[in-house]
Design brief:
The chain is α+β, with helices and mostly antiparallel strands and 379 residues long. The protein contains 7 helices and 18 strands. The two termini are 38 Å apart.
């Protein structure tokens, strides 16, 4: 089927799914001009043990998943594939019917001052210098309010076109009573139709002053990136026999530069690979948590003044049309019904970190979405 749709068709489908109180997700894979839109019906979003290998749909995981039961698996009970020009490529199923209201989660919020964040970073630097940690990723929330005419679907389309190399996604989960929208440059793991497994190490950040500038990376940045790359190389090496790496290279993501190293492995039998087992060994990576992983994770849970929830978790299509693409949920925001919006941003702390510069880094990362919202006159 390839019929022309009105420009507001994606918006209309999104609004219909939300009014029906259904789980709805739309996303676009980097460097494509296709949009996937799915609605999950009334079925449970958690799978029984060892059922992941048979699942096809969209996966959403929080940052912290201690018991393995917090990952949501959304099936494509209704699916539409769009071109960016608004035409339908294909569609399957029917829009699920309305479902009853559910128990809504409460979200922790903590909007700390610059002084408080800097003090928290300095405390972490002192701990790192004792040798307890090599690196830790600390994060913060930033609050603002959207204009009443804000359209999640319109803004999603805008992000797709503005950030073609990012994984752009928007999800409404009734139990969360909020919408999450993100434009992530960080691939956690993917497997394509040819059985090629890929992952990326994305760490070290500098503000873009000129798109044509030559970026000089300091010792702190190189160490931060090396920690993440070695962690990923080690964890992937436990699951694949041959692993190639490419980089590090300097890449632009919105208004910041990053160092990126790509990892690839050609699998001899991709169908026999337990992808979720690999994901479990990678997540949370040292790009999102720190090193050693267990100590850093414990420190974040005990000392970060709010619960991250989906921020620095991962999300993406899983086993759809023979491919899986899971991305770290960074450069994201959470939108509530009253227009209240929370931006999330983090920074990798090492022994050579400057707390003042780490604060500025979180501001620069927040600016990626703030700038897009300002361009669309939503704030």
């Amino acid at each position: 089927m390839n019929s022309r749709l009105p420009d507001n068709n994606l918006k209309a489908l999104w609004q219909q799914a939300r009014s029906n109180n259904q789980c709805v997700v739309m996303w676009s894979i980097p460097k494509t001009d296709k949009i996937q839109f799915i609605v999950h019906g009334i079925k449970e979003t958690r799978l029984k043990e060892n059922q992941e290998k048979y699942f096809s749909g969209f996966v959403i995981s929080p940052f912290f998943n201690s018991n393995g039961q917090d990952i949501q698996f959304l099936t494509a009970d209704y699916r539409v594939e769009f071109n960016f020009d608004g035409s339908i490529i294909s569609q399957e199923g029917e829009m699920p019917l309305h479902r009853d209201e559910l128990v809504v989660e409460n979200f922790e919020q903590y909007f700390e001052s610059k002084e408080d964040f800097v003090a928290r970073v300095n405390k972490a630097i002192e701990l790192i210098r004792t040798g307890t940690l090599q690196k830790i990723v600390l994060s913060r929330q930033k609050q603002f309010f959207l204009e009443p005419d804000f359209s999640p679907s319109d803004f999603f389309l805008f992000l797709c076109k503005k950030h073609p190399t990012a994984f752009v996604a928007a999800a409404y989960i009734p139990e969360n009573n909020s919408i999450w929208i993100g434009a992530s440059p960080e691939l956690l793991i993917s497997i394509d139709k040819d059985g090629v497994l890929k992952s990326t190490s994305l760490a070290a950040t500098k503000k873009v002053c000129d798109p044509n500038e030559i970026v000089n990376w300091g010792t702190k940045d190189l160490d931060e990136h090396r920690f993440v790359s070695e962690f990923i190389r080690c964890r992937l090496g436990e699951h694949v026999k041959q692993l190639e790496s490419f980089g590090p290279h300097t890449v632009m993501a919105g208004n910041v530069w990053h160092l990126q190293t790509r990892f690839e492995s050609k699998l001899s039998n991709a169908k026999s690979v337990d992808l979720m087992a690999i994901v479990s060994s990678l997540h949370p990576s040292s790009a999102l948590c720190g090193l050693p992983q267990d100590i850093a994770l414990k420190y974040i849970i005990e000392n970060e003044p709010y619960k991250r929830n989906l921020y620095t978790g991962y999300w993406g299509p899983f086993n759809m049309k023979g491919e899986s693409n899971l991305y770290a949920n960074i450069r994201c925001m959470q939108i509530f019904n009253n227009g209240e919006t929370i931006l999330y941003a983090g920074c990798g702390i090492t022994a050579d970190s400057s707390a003042e510069l780490e604060w500025l880094e979180t501001e620069d990362k927040c600016h990626t979405l703030i700038q897009a919202l300002q361009m669309y006159s939503y704030i």
